[in-house]
Amino acid sequence: MNSVVLALIGVAMMITGYALYSKFLARRVYRLKPAFATPAHEHRDGVDFVPTNKYVLWGHHFTSVAGAAPIVGPAVAVIWGWLPAFLWVTIGTVFFAGMHDLGALWASVRNKGRSMGSLSGNYIGPRGRNLFLVVIFLLLLMVNAAFAVVISNLLVSTPTAVIPTWGAILVALAVGQAMYRFRVSLPVVSVLGVVALYALILVGDRVPVVLPETILGLSDNSFWILVLFVYAGIASVLPVWLLLQPRDYINGLQLFIGLGILYGAVLVSAPTVVAPALNTNLPEGTPNIVPLLFVTIACGAISGFHGMVSSGTSSKQLDKETDARFVGYFGAVGEGLLALGAIIATTAGFRTLADWEAVYSAFNSGGVAAFVTGGGSIINAGLGIPVSLSATILATMAVLFAATTMDTGVRLQRFVVQEAAELAGIRIGKGVSTVVVLVVALGLAFGAGADGSGGMVIWPLFGTTNQLLAGLTLSIVAVMLLRKGRPVLPVLVPLVFVLSMSVFALVVQIGTFYAAGNWLLLGMDLVILVAALWVIVEAGLAMAAARRAPAEEAVAESARH
Amino acid sequence: MTTRETFELARTRLAAGLRELYVAPYRSTFARARRDEEDLFLMMVLAEALGVPNPVSYYTVELLPAVYDRFHDWHRRMGLDRSPLEHISCC
């Protein structure tokens, strides 16, 4: 199979999904109305509620939801062969993710721009709201631990990425100063920032930084994880204009450039996919494809985190209700394209099947490192950029993604800890709450072993939690549709599928963690399993009640006559 | 439209789009910080009227007329549905 064919079929499926299925959802299911006064207009305050151009809002929404997860998930999941990952990403984007993201936007817009957490109280009940908080807490916790391991693995496997990774912080600090202190024009700052970042990539490629195997009694991986958490802690308490804002911006530009380079190289070099369509020669210890595929690839197929962004910020900025189709559905398509790029890089970026099998010698052994190696050789073949430099570009892109998500994750988790403490009647400051967040995340990272690999072991657990959150969001959307007497099948089928796969995966993982004697992860698995079963019961009850009640729209119609 | 004007229009649009991309994700963070500062300022100006001894009320009382417009939003944000001050009946 030629990778261009794979790319074209994938892109065609997603674009067709946008052109046809999202139109069906917008007209028949969500019934978006251009005249509906969105919260951005009704509650316009210049703070949260600001009507925004749909293309700008899409850019904002896409860069907020796109992180390292759509790269990590597919890069691990291709171990079962390229076909299952390809099908789950494309079909998942069209029928699951797009519908979910658009639905979350619609649900929030129809409820004064309120977040999913707040809506769960209304539609699933007060217990549903508490459940939502628990799931969000676990998700953020796992994001921090998992992404620290992803970055440290990359820094060890691609030492040429060390200088650009840390140098990007200096570039962001300089961009922040140039913007607010020296008032330099943004196009100039953007060009200078991107040039500086790529200059650092060139320097890094010449000067790889390899740490000694042991530093202060810690392995190189463990050392990087510790450094990353210290950095994330500091970054999360600094004023946002100083580091986070310019860092997000530069990373956003780098995302578009990196994706352009990768897809451009695939089109020019048209490499052959060497990985099997269905891998029958699975390494020992590889879990069964069902249900693990559906939780290994979460972002890129369906992601609960998108619902948080859709209802947290994007819904408050939607200029017209009909823009939700472009912002929500097409935002999911953007993420699907990133996941598709990761599948192509990890299956077509190797010369022979033997080379590919050597990298995918065990479950979790491929991952982002395979994306960097495979993608690097595709860029080399397509654009003539040396292999090492291509790999450095991709490694830096993946690290910056993961680091931005970690920065935000620690910051959001800090707010959650402060809120939880306030509910318990204790007031804690920025410093204490940040330390609490870091200690818990470090405990998780090192809970599975002294090498800090816990973050990667929990990856499928991260997937299940993310799907669980998506299930909660879909339950809210389903209850709303049932109350209105609208077609509910497009939401109900993905909802049942996602929740059953999550529960199945959690049960399978209980056995895995028990066999490995991993008590921390076993405990977390049990907590998430209880939450999942709870979601199913609460959502089922809420939907049954909504089904029994007379349809809101029919009631409104009869009241008019 | 001349080539120069077309170029200038494209440059302006690009700059505006980039600016929006830079500002949008943190717009609410900044606006909220600005509003918090404003709230603190109003609290200081109105301290004496609210029964809190204010050593600089001689100066702040002069600012009262300037803050009347913002007073209603402020007391609602502070969780008070009606104006807490008798001499300012905004609602």
Describe this protein with a few key phrases.
heterodimer, A: 561 residues, mainly alpha, two-stranded antiparallel sheet, 23 helices, 2 strands, globular, B: 91 residues, 4 helices, 65% helix, 0% strand, elongated
The number of distinct structural domains of chain A comes to 1
Structural class of chain B, please?
mainly alpha
Average pLDDT, all residues of chain B: 83
Helix and strand element order of chain B: HHHH
Largest interface: A-B, 29 and 19 residues
Task: Give the strand line-up of the largest sheet of chain A.
Answer: 1-2
Major sheet attributes of chain A: 2 strands, antiparallel
Radius of gyration of chain A from CA coordinates: 23 Å
Helical element count of chain A? Answer: 23
User: How many beta-strand elements of chain B?
Assistant: 0
Let me know the largest β-sheet of chain B. none
Radius of gyration of chain B: 21 Å
Helix content of chain B: 55-70%
Shape of chain B: elongated
Characterize the structure shown.
The complex is a heterodimer of chains A (561) and B (91). Chain A has one domain. In chain A, 58% of the residues are buried. With 561 residues, chain A is mainly α. Chain A has helices spanning 3-29, 39-42, 54-65, 69-77, 82-109, 116-123, 126-157, 162-180, 186-206, 220-237, 244-269, 289-296, 304-312, 323-348, 353-359, 367-383, 387-423, 430-447, 454-457, 459-484, 489-515, 519-548, 552-560; strands at 214-215, 218-219. Helix content of chain A is 75%, strand content 1%. Chain A is built from 23 helices and two strands. Chain B is mainly α and 91 residues long. Chain B has helices spanning 3-23, 27-46, 57-60, 64-77. In chain B, helix 2 (27-46) packs across helix 4 (64-77). Chain B is elongated. The A-B interface holds A 45-48, 50, 52-53, 55-57, 59-60, 63-64, 179, 185-187, 190, 240-241, 244-246, 248-249, 252, 313, 317 and B 11, 14-15, 17-22, 24-32, 35. Chain B: It comes from Georgenia muralis. Chain B: This is DNA helicase. Chain B: Pfam families: DUF7990. Chain A: It is a multi-pass membrane protein. Chain A: It comes from Georgenia muralis.
